[in-house]
Each structure stands twice: as structure tokens, then as C-alpha cells.
Design brief:
The complex is a heterodimer. Chain A is mainly beta. Chain A is 0% helix and 52% strand. The chains are: A mainly beta, B alpha+beta. At the A-B interface, β19 and β20 of A face β6, β7 and α2 of B.
Chain lengths: 242, 96
């Protein structure tokens, strides 16, 4: 874990800075400045894959992973790269999701997560329905169907924290459909994602290229998120959370 | 289940005279508090969120905190189960 326990600010020798506020800092901003959108004063921060133990009020936890839309080399001489993915702040005894951006190359860059993308597919997924009709490639997923009964197939993560995200997107192509392709959210740990179990969804019912978005701004905590094909042949090349 | 859509695509259980009517199986069995915490964007239409992001239908998503809606629905189902139990007990006692 990389972190500091005094007031948030310059990274004490590290090539990064963490600042708070409800609007992005103006004026001269240095590269690798992380702005956390918060009205609560930041009292220290931690960069780690796991939740910090014994956090103090106002602490920001930047969850790190193996990929990020804004990787940061924190060493001024050598190479030590952090991959920030999401930010939370300890407020009133609980972790609260916050949006964050990194200033790099003259612009503020949003943090988002690719579940399916050019860098590959996030592990931990499951399949349901006609599982032999789900083909997981290196950077895309194919959902299809066969036969006359139970013509649905699903690729999903049964428990994913949506606290830091406000929209979910998917891109791909539908080559054949008699019903729909769905991007959806269901209850946490839903092991078999039947169409009637969704809490939110967006459907595509036409063949061709598609790019869909689902509003998930009211979801906080863990939920099942899914790509669902109902009597459709779909190739999904991107699935992301913003 | 019949619901009514206002100009901001928010769902309602009663029509104030200016809303559009839709029959959505998604809301079958849902209590009024849950229904009225959702937004529905029909196919072919778009809704623009306050931050400028545009969402195309057919989309259905809550605008109220999903955990609050889940609590409403659980209470609704618990109340319904209790009413059924009471009615069964009354039937057993021969009380109409």
C-alpha cells in the first residue's frame, strides 16, 4: 500500500498529487494531479488493491488494479506505475464512492473500467443459459443460440461494485436477432440471470453495429451485471463502466 | 402492468391527465413506491441526463437509490405474505 496519513496534497516525493473539491482545479495544474470530486476535506489517502485498515474520517482510498485509463508513474527517476481505478472516501464511518480524474497531457482524464476491451477481459465472469453458445475470446465475447428451446445465453459478473460509476456501456455487432440483446443489472449474486430478474436494462432489437448506454447512477454497492442474448447472435467488443 | 410516463420519462401509477400510458410486464408485482422510483425510455426515444449524457431506449432504470427501492419492495412482499397468512388463518376458523 502506498499512502500518507497527513492532510491530502503533494505526494511527498512521489510524482503525484491528490486534491479534493467539487470542481476541477483551475490555473496551472501539474501532470498526475488526481482530483477527487468531493465536498468533504481529504485527510490523507491510500493507494491499494485492498481496503485500508483503520481508516480515518476523510481518508481517500484509491483502489488500484492492473489496468487503468490513467496509469501513473509515481517515481521521478525510475519506473513505478500505479493503475488507479476507483476512488472512495471514508465519510461518517463508511466508504462512499467518489468520481475522480487525473490531469495528464494537458487534460483531465476520467477513470473508467473496461470489462471487455482491447486489453482483454476482466476475470471472474460466469455464463448462464446456453453456456455452450457463449464464446469468450481474447478481447471480445460472442453470445449466440441454437435449437428451439431456452434460446438465451448470458455472460455476467455475479457481484460487482457499482458505487463509483454512473453509466455502463457496451459496443458490438448483432448479426441476427429475433428478440433482443440486453445490457443489464440484477441483484447481487444472482447465479442464473433470467430475463425477469433484471433491476435495470437497455435492449437492442436490431441487427448491425450497436453502442448502448445504461444509467446506473442510482446503484451503489454490489450487483450482478450482465450481457444477455435472447434469440440473438451478438459479438461484444467493448463493455465498460464510467 | 399499466404505468404512466411523464415528460421526463419518470414512471407513475396514476395519470394526471398529461401522461402517456404503457403496459410494462417489468413492473408486475412491484409496489407503487418502486414503480415511482423508475424511469422508462421507450424504444426510439432518448432521454438526456442532467450531466449531458444521452440514453436511448428501450431503457428502464431507477432514479431513486436502488437500495431504498429494494427495501420498499421487500416490505411490500412481507406485508402481502402476512395478509395471506392471516386470511388463511381466518378461513380455517371459518371467519369470512
Amino acid at each position: 500500500m502506498i499512502g500518507k496519513t497527513n492532510a491530502g496534497g503533494a505526494g511527498g516525493g512521489l510524482n503525484l498529487k491528490v486534491v479534493g473539491g467539487t470542481s476541477s482545479p483551475g490555473g496551472s495544474v501539474k501532470d498526475n494531479t488526481i482530483w477527487v470530486n468531493t465536498a468533504t476535506p481529504i485527510n490523507g489517502y491510500a493507494f491499494s488493491a485492498d481496503e485500508p485498515e483503520n481508516p480515518s474520517e476523510g481518508m481517500v482510498w484509491v483502489k488500484t488494479a492492473t489496468e487503468s485509463t490513467t496509469p501513473i508513474n509515481v517515481d521521478k527517476k525510475n519506473t513505478v506505475i500505479l493503475y488507479p481505478q476507483t476512488a472512495q472516501q471514508y465519510v461518517g464511518g463508511v466508504w462512499v464512492g467518489k468520481t475522480a480524474k487525473t490531469f495528464q497531457g494537458g487534460a483531465w482524464k476520467s477513470w473508467h473500467t473496461f470489462l471487455i476491451g482491447s486489453r482483454g477481459i476482466v476475470s471472474g465472469y460466469e455464463t448462464a443459459g446456453q453456456t455452450d453458445q457463449v464464446t469468450v475470446g481474447a478481447a471480445s465475447v460472442d453470445l449466440s443460440y441454437s435449437g428451439s428451446f431456452g434460446r438465451w445465453s448470458v455472460f455476467y459478473y455475479s457481484s460487482y461494485n457499482l458505487s463509483n460509476y454512473s453509466r455502463m456501456t457496451a459496443k458490438g455487432r448483432i448479426s441476427e436477432t429475433s428478440n433482443w440483446f440486453r445490457l443489464g443489472v440484477a441483484a447481487d449474486n444472482t447465479t442464473v440471470v433470467e430475463h425477469q430478474t433484471f433491476l435495470a436494462s437497455v435492449d437492442v432489437t436490431k441487427t448491425g453495429e450497436f453502442e448502448v448506454e445504461l444509467d446506473i447512477s442510482s446503484f451503489s454497492g454490489n450487483y450482478c451485471i450482465a450481457l444477455y442474448s435472447s434469440i440473438s447472435k451478438v459479438n461484444v467488443t467493448e463493455w465498460a463502466l464510467y | 402492468m399499466k404505468i404512466y410516463l411523464d415528460a421526463d420519462y419518470m414512471c407513475h401509477t396514476t395519470n394526471n391527465g398529461s401522461m402517456r400510458e404503457f403496459d410494462l410486464p417489468f413492473f408486475d408485482g412491484k409496489c407503487a413506491a418502486v414503480i415511482e422510483g423508475y424511469r422508462y425510455v421507450p424504444a426510439g426515444e432518448t432521454w438526456t441526463r442532467s450531466d449531458g449524457v444521452v440514453f436511448e431506449g428501450e431503457m428502464i432504470a431507477p432514479f431513486e437509490d436502488s437500495r431504498v427501492l429494494e427495501a420498499y419492495q421487500k416490505q411490500y412482499e412481507a406485508d402481502a405474505a402476512e395478509r395471506e397468512d392471516m386470511q388463511a388463518a381466518l378461513a380455517l376458523l371459518g371467519v369470512e
